[in-house]
Amino acid sequence: MESAGKKRIYQFIFVGPAVLFFTLILVIPFFMSIYYSFTEWNGVSTTVTWIGTDNYKKIFFHDPDYYKAFVFTFRYAIVGVLLTNLVGFLLALLLTQALKLKNLLRTIFFMPNVIGGLLLGFIWSFIFVKGFASVGELTGLAFFNLPWLGDAPTAFWGIVIVTVWKGAGYVMVIYIAGLSNVPKDMIEAARIDGATKLQMLYKITIPLIMPSITVCLFLTLSWGFKVFDLIVSLTKGGPFNSTESVSLNIYQEAFRNNALGLGSAKAVIFFLIVALITVIQVTITKKREVES
Amino acid sequence: METSKRYTARLFSLEILGILLAIIFLVPFYFVLTNSFKPFAELLANTTSLPKAFSFHNYTEVWKIMNFPKVFLNSLIITVASNAGLVIISSMAAYRMVRNNTRLNQILFLLFVSAMIIPFESIMIPLVKLAGNIGFLNHIWGVVICYFGFGVSLNLFLYHGFVKSIPVEVEEAAIVDGCSIFGVFWRIVFPLLKPVTVTIILLNSLWIWNDFLLPLLIISGPETRTIPLATYSFFGQYMKQWDLALAALTLGVLPIILFFLGMQKHIIEGITAGSVKG
Question: Which CATH number fits domain A63-291: 3.40.50.1820, 1.10.3720.10, 3.40.50.300, 2.60.200.20?
Answer without folding.
Answer: 1.10.3720.10
